[in-house]
Structure formats: C-alpha cells, structure tokens
C-alpha cells in the first residue's frame, strides 16, 4: 500500500484504504478520467430521461390506480388508445416494471421514517378510511377484506412507496438532466465535480417534504400527511440507496443460487445484490430487471456516448452490457455523493477526534463495499 | 448433363490454376463459389427433371473408354444417388463460403476443394465399377492435402493415417470388384452386367466381406474408425464439413449400391451380423462421445454412432428402412455439417473447444447467442426431436428395421438416447451458466459466420416437416433395388418387404 506523503493523514489498514484517502481528499469512489466522465455524465443524462418517465408513472399509479383490482392500463398514464396498446405489445415502450422492482425493494427492505410511519396507528386509521371509501358498494372485496384484514392495508403501504419513490425520482431526474446541461456548457470537467453536483442536489432537496394524498370519490385521504414530517433525504434517498444500491434481491438469471442450501442469507440486511454489486455480464438476458433498465436507457443515449460504445470491440451488439458498466460507474458517483453528504463532520476539519470519527464512518462504508464491484470500476473495465 | 457436374469443377480448378495472378489472386474464392452455385442449381434442376416413376437410370451417358479393360465412362442418376449429388453440391458451396477469406495458399486450396467435389460427384454418378473406383481414389488426394496443409498441429499424422486407411479401403474395393468380374466370368465392369451375375453364395460372401471392410473403413464402422476423430480434429472447419457431410456417405452409398445391390443372397445371410455390427458401432460411438472433452471429437464420435444406423437399416433391407438409409445419409450430412460449422465458429472466437473450459456462451450480449441457439437446434435435430430431419430419418430406420431385427433396433434406439446425453452435456457445459471473465471480450460474430449454419438449419427443419419432398426422389429406386433381388433373396429378406412396403404398386 502506498502512502500519500503530502498530508498529515492517519494511516489506514483497511483493504480499501486508497479509496478512503481519495474520499478524504475530496475525490470519489470512481477514479477521475476523461472516459469515466464521458460515460458517467452521458449515462446519467439517459437515466435522467428514463427516471422522468418512471416517476410520472409511479405517481400516476399512486394517484389514479389506487386499489384497482385489475390495473390493466397502469403503464399507460391515463392515455389508452389502440396505437399505444399496439406499441406496448410490440414492446416499443418504457419498461415501467423496473420502477416497480425498485419500489418493491424499498417496501421489502424498509428503513427510515417512511417505513416507521407506515406502522403507526395514524396511518392505519387513514388507510382504513381510504379502503372503506374505495370499497363502498363492492361487497365481494369488502367481504374478503373482512376475512383477510391485513391484505389491503399492505397494498396501501405499497401505494405509499409508489408515491414516495416517484417523488424521490422526480428530484433525481431533474438533477441528472441539469448535470448533463452543465457538462454540455463546459461547467463539469471532472468526476469530483459530478459528485459535487449530486451532493449539492441532495443537500438542497434534503428537507423537501414527502407527502401522499389520494382522492377517492372526491374525498381526500392524507396517507402521508405533512405533519408526519417525512423528508426527501432521510426518508426516501437513504432507504433507497440501502434497498436498491446495496441490498436488493437475488434475481434468478443474474445470480445462480440454491436457496435450500442456505446460499441466500436469512436476514435481508445481509443481502448484497444491489446495483453496486450487480454483475453486468448477464444483462441482456430475458426476464431480469437490469435488462429492463438498460434497455430503457438505450433509447436516450446522447450521441457522444453512443459513439463511444460503437467504437468498442463488439460495437453496438453488447450495448446493454456497456450501458450497465457505465451505469454502475455513475451509481458509484451517486454513492460517493451520499457518503460525502452524510459525513458526520466536514472533510477539512482539523480536530483529530472529528477526523477519527470521519475515518471510522468511511471505513464503515468501505466494509460494506468490499464485496461490491468497486475494485472492478477502479480498473476501468468490466 | 451429368458430365457437367463433374467437368465444371474440374474446369474451374484448371481456370484458377492457369489464370494469371491479377485475375485470380482474390478471385479464386469467387470463382469456386460461383462454380458450386451453378453446380448446385444444376443438380437441383436435375432433381426437378428427374422422373420419379422410373426405376431405370436417368440422364445416362455412355462413352467407351478402355473396352479391353471393361472400363467405360458410364454415368447415370437414380433415386439413390440424386439426394447425395444435391447434398454434395450444397455442402461444397457451404464449405467454400465458410472458408476464411484470408486462407493461406488460396489458389491451391480452392483447386483442391473443387477437385474433391468432382471426385465425389463422379463416384455417385458412376455406373461402371472401375469408374467408381477411379473417382473414389481421385477424391482421396485432394482431401489428404486439405488436411495435411490446412490442418491443426498434428495434421501430418492425421492426414497420413487418413490416407493409409482409405487407400486400403480403395485397394479392397478394387480387389472386390476384380474378384467379382473374374469369378463371374464377365468381360465388363458395367454395373448392369455385374448385377446379373449368379455366383455361388460362398463366393458372394467372400466378396461381400471384402467390400464390407472396404466401405466399413470409409463409413467408418468400429473397429475401422480410428482415422476419423483424428482427421476431424486436425482438419479445418470446411474440410470437416465435407468429410462428415459428404465423404462418409461414399461408404454407405457403396455399401448399398455394391454390397446390397450386387450380393443380395450373401447380404441376406450376413444381415443379422451386420445389424449386430451396427449396434456395436452405434453404442461404441455414443459411449465414446460421452467421454470426450473436445467438442469436435464429440461430434466426430457421434458421426460414427449415427452412421451405424445406416448399416442397421441397410441390413434390414425393407423398403422403409432402405428409404431410411437415404434419409439418414442426407440428415446426417446436414446435421453433422451444421454441428461442425458451429463448433468451428466457437473455436475461432474463443480459441478452445474444451467443454470443461467453455461456459456461458449463450450470453445474449457478450457471448455467441445465435450460434448457441443454432447449436441447440442442431443438437435437437441430432437427437431426433420431432419436426426436424433427424427425427424422420431415425424414425424410418427404426420403424423399417424393427420387424426384422427387433433386438438390434432397440439397442440402436438406446444410442439415440445417448445422443441426447452427450450433446446436452456439450450444450449445458459450454453454453449455459455465466460467461467466464476470460471470454468476456469475445470478438463479434459476423453474418458470414452465421449464414451457412442458418441455411443448413432451415433445410433440416424444412425436410423434417416435409420429408416427402426428399422421399419421392428415392422411393421408386430403392423399392426396385429390393424387388430386383427379391427373386434371389431368402424368405427372411422377402417377408419384411411384404409386411411393411410403402409402395404396393412397385411390387
């Protein structure tokens, strides 16, 4: 391990010590290079467009498909036409299913104030009221609800996650598109500047309230009221990073496993199947969520990134894998921003105690990233 | 008309040889491709003009050559040869197309391929025993050089082994033919003349045994097979395609035409032993294939097993089983050519054929997904999945043979099950699972690599769904072949003809 001599930093014996030093010096988890910058900004532009479609659909489902028994047209955002249906069947569409996978990852792994609020009596009361309003005159489902009283409230919790994730992505989408605009204007020239842009965006939106009100027969039900005090950073961003970047699920097709042989951890907090751990090589295989996202991003690639992919060994034939590699790099930038944004003390503090706490905090993150694709993205190849 | 099929490739070979360099430097490939395309169209046209109702030779050509030797240039086409002639033109075109355009010494290479084609088509068309022998020998020389010059690391060994085995096969054929003519007192090597001979059964048996060993080497049947896996492993992909697709068929063709055709009484006596021999060949080939780690060797051993079915069907000699032999010849020609082409692409892209090293090649973005999918189709066809040609041919072979040799047929059917075992092992190990890092940067597969395999796959499915399009060419000839010998054959041979004939009119 080489030491950087100029500073008076404490040595670290962590296997990822080099990355800890880099973060302490204001760097990012991803090495700064012109290719990395091009890939990250380009892919975040495309991702921004995809997220824009995703959040609109999530909000549409939360607001307009609430407890619909047969939500046939939930991906149509209210515009049902024969042409759109044919294009949907022809698969000329956005894979909104991916957004739902992320929503379910958040619902499943929980965490943060949103998860806690969904178990409070206030929420239960509002949820029951909304269910009763929705089921008015629907004796069949009302009867089933009596027999299985926990089923519909759980569905309502899921709709809250639809809405919360939609609100989170609305902010992220705008942030990524602004990043791309700033890059195009020559304001973003390095990977640390990308991280800084994202961190700034997260900090600015940190206290943005997360609320959800559903209208049923003209009556409003405050499922996530403002008084619950849910906010963007701690109640959606942090749980999202935890659920989607770190834990997620072991999708068949991306991970081969034998659950009976205890190859999958019994505790969800030990899951490491998230975006930072995902293997890009199986991408393109049918029926796995990463393929859906990478496929969506193929539609919005900026020209410079498209050219970059075309020049690779297999040209466009492995574009989804290449997108996944770039996307993973960009997600390490987002993670860098989250790590830096949540630092207990400023990076430039001179207080040795605070610096030790910062170091301890960073080592905690690095422990979790030991098994991730972090070492791979350092090499700038798959 | 038939001489055109022999003369055209020879003329093109001469043209490639004598044209000045600027004219043919890179044009050798184009000339060879065009030649074989014309030959293919010509042979298909012959197929359309072929009168399926006739039992006699068609498009006959007869030129006296060395009459004192009984050697005449006599060509003719019947339902047994026609499918093989078309197959030969098709696979030669495919072999040339799938040749690396950057092949070293291109002039010599394309000349040899064209001469090989001429030799094979001549042997299928010859209706004079000596003429057949000449073409049979002619084809060895280009093939020897094709393996010896463009082969793998042990090409010298493989080519020499091939030459020794098949030259011996040629000598035995000559011995058999000479013996037949001398013993019967005939003064001609004409096929028709020798067909009319009435030799004692003991003499027939001796001559048949000689021909069985001769053609058994070519087919190849266990224990004369050892040259084949070596030749396949060392030969380049296009040569393997020709070797498996067409050249092995010379052995089975010879067995039917000269073994069953000329010595029906002896054949009837030997039939049960031949069927048992077929079982040994099928099971040995299949079990040995299971043990292989090299994809090409596995396909080579599967060839030995699949060629064994032809011997079983020929031994049973019912109308349906003889039709099965033709189907199995064509089906094995197409399927093994397909498998060798695909293995060739895998080898070229990954640098290995070891199924313990290869993995995950079906990866949709970074692997060889289309090649892998075609491989699965090829494997299914080879294992006899309905809807593909492998099923029809094996079904005909087994259906036709079961009434005569039930035990042997059942044992051969075990071989079909084993086909599924080894080919699924191949597919499962090489194509499924995660692509290893060492293969994460495989070069792109071009359409040039895919087109030949796609053509073969389409034909395998087409003739699998519409076997009648192939059957109507051969049915009359084959029934006549059996009926012709019916007067001489023992009741054991006649009975199945009556029992399972498909063309009552022909009887």
Proportion of β residues of chain A? under 5%
Head-to-tail CA distance between termini of chain A: 24 Å
State the shape of chain B. Answer: globular
Structural class label of chain B: mainly alpha
How many β-strand runs of chain A?
Answer: 2
What's the SSE pattern of chain A? HHHHHHHHHEEHHHHHH
The arrangement of helices and strands of chain B along the chain is HHHEEHHHHHHHHHHHHHHHHHH
Helicity of chain A, in percent?
Answer: 55-70%
Total domain modules of chain B: 1
Summarize this entry quickly.
The complex is a heterodimer of chains A (382) and B (507). Chain A has 382 residues and is mainly α.
Question: What structural keywords apply?
Answer:
heterodimer, A: 382 residues, mainly alpha, two-stranded antiparallel ribbon, 57% helix, B: 507 residues, 2 strands, 73% helix
Structure write-up:
The complex is a heterodimer of chains A (382) and B (507). Chain A is mostly helical and 382 residues long. Chain A has one domain (32-67, 90-337). In chain A, 57% of the residues lie in helices and 3% in strands. Chain A has helices at residues 17-24, 34-64, 82-89, 97-109, 112-117, 121-134, 139-147, 151-184, 191-205, 232-247, 289-298, 303-310, 319-341, 352-369, 374-378, and strands at residues 212-216, 219-224. Chain A is globular. Chain A starts with 16 loop residues before the first helix and ends with a helix. Chain B has one domain (2-506). Helix content of chain B is 73%, strand content 3%. The longest helix of chain B has 32 residues, at 319-350. Chain B starts with a helix and ends in a 7-residue tail after the last helix. The model of chain B is unreliable at 486-507 (pLDDT under 50). At the A-B interface, helix 13 of A face loops of B.
């Amino acid at each position: 391990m080489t030491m950087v001599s100029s500073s008076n930093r404490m040595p670290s014996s962590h296997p990822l010590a080099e990355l800890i030093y880099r973060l302490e010096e204001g760097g990012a988890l991803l090495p700064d290079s012109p290719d990395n910058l091009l890939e990250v900004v380009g892919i975040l532009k495309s991702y921004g467009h995809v997220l824009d479609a995703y959040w609109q659909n999530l909000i549409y489902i939360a607001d307009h498909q609430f407890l619909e028994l047969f939500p046939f047209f939930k991906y149509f955002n209210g515009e049902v036409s024969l042409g759109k249906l044919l294009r949907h069947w022809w698969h000329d569409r956005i894979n909104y299913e991916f957004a739902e996978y992320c929503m379910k990852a958040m619902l499943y792994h929980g965490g943060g104030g949103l998860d806690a609020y969904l178990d409070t009596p206030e929420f239960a009361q509002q949820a029951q009221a909304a269910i009763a309003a929705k089921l008015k005159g629907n004796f069949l489902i009302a009867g089933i609800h009596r027999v299985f009283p926990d089923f519909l409230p759980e569905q309502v919790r899921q709709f809250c996650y639809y809405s919360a994730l939609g609100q989170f992505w609305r902010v992220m989408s705008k942030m990524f598109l602004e990043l791309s605009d700033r890059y195009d204007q020559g304001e973003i020239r390095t990977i640390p500047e990308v991280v800084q842009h994202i961190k700034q965006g997260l900090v600015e939106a940190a206290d943005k309230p997360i609320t959800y009100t559903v209208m049923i027969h003209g009556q409003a039900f405050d499922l996530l009221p403002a008084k619950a005090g849910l906010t963007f950073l701690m109640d959606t961003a942090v749980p999202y990073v935890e659920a989607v970047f770190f834990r997620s699920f072991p999708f068949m097709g991306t991970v081969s496993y034998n659950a009976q042989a205890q190859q999958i951890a019994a505790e969800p907090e030990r899951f490491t199947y998230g975006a930072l751990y995902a293997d890009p090589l199986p991408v393109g295989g049918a029926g796995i969520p990463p393929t859906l996202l990478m496929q969506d991003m193929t539609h919005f690639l900026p020209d410079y990134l498209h050219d970059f992919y075309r020049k690779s060994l297999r040209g466009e034939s492995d574009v989804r894998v290449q997108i996944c590699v770039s996307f993973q790099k960009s997600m390490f930038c987002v993670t860098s921003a989250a790590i830096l944004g949540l630092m207990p003390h400023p990076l430039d503090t001179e207080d040795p105690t605070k610096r030790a706490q910062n170091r301890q905090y960073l080592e905690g993150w690095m422990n979790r990233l030991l098994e991730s694709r972090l070492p791979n993205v350092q090499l700038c190849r798959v | 008309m038939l001489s055109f099929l022999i003369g055209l490739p020879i003329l093109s070979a001469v043209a490639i040889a004598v044209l000045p360099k600027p004219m043919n430097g890179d044009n050798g490939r184009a000339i060879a491709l065009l030649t074989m395309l014309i030959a293919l169209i010509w042979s298909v046209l012959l197929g359309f003009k072929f009168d399926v109702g006739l039992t006699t030779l068609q498009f006959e050509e007869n030129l006296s050559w060395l009459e004192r030797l009984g050697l005449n240039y006599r060509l003719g086409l019947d339902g047994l040869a026609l499918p093989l002639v078309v197959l030969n033109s098709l696979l030669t075109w495919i072999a040339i197309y799938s040749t690396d355009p950057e092949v070293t010494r291109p002039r010599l290479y394309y000349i040899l391929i064209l001469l090989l084609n001429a030799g094979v088509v001549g042997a299928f068309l010859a209706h004079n025993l000596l003429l057949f022998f000449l073409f049979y020998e002619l084809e060895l020389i280009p093939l020897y050089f094709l393996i010896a010059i463009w082969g793998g690391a042990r090409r010298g060994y493989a080519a020499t082994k091939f030459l020794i085995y098949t030259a011996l096969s040629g000598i035995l054929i000559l011995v058999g033919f000479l013996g037949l003519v001398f013993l019967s007192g005939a003064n001609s090597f004409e096929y028709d003349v020798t067909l009319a001979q009435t030799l004692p059964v003991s003499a027939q048996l001796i001559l048949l045994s000689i021909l069985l060993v001769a053609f058994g080497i070519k087919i190849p049947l266990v224990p004369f097979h050892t040259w084949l896996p070596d030749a396949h492993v060392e030969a380049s992909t296009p040569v393997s395609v020709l070797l498996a697709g067409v050249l092995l068929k010379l052995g089975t063709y010879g067995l039917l035409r000269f073994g069953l055709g000329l010595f029906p009484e002896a054949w009837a006596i030997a039939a049960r032993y031949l069927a048992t021999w077929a079982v040994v060949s099928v099971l040995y080939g299949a079990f040995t294939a299971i043990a292989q780690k090299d994809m090409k060797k596995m396909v080579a051993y599967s060839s030995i097993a699949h060629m064994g079915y032809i011997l079983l069907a020929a031994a049973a000699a019912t109308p349906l089983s003889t039709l099965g032999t033709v189907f199995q010849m064509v089906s094995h020609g197409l399927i093994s050519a397909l498998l060798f082409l695909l293995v060739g692409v895998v080898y070229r892209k990954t640098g290995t054929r070891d199924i313990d090293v290869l993995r995950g090649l079906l990866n949709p973005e970074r692997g060889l997904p289309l090649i892998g999918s075609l491989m699965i189709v090829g494997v299914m066809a080879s294992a006899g999945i309905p809807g593909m040609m492998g099923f029809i041919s094996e079904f005909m072979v087994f259906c036709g043979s079961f009434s005569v040799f039930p035990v042997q047929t059942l044992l051969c059917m075990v071989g079909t099950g084993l086909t599924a075992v080894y080919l699924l092992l191949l597919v499962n190990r090489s194509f499924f699972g995660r692509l290893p890092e060492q293969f994460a940067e495989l070069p792109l597969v071009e359409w040039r690599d895919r087109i030949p395999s796609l053509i073969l796959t389409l034909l395998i499915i087409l003739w699998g769904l519409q076997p009648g399009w192939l059957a109507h060419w051969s049915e009359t000839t084959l029934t006549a072949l059996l009926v012709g010998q019916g007067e001489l054959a023992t009741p054991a041979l006649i009975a199945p003809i009556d029992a399972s004939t498909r063309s009552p009119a022909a009887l």
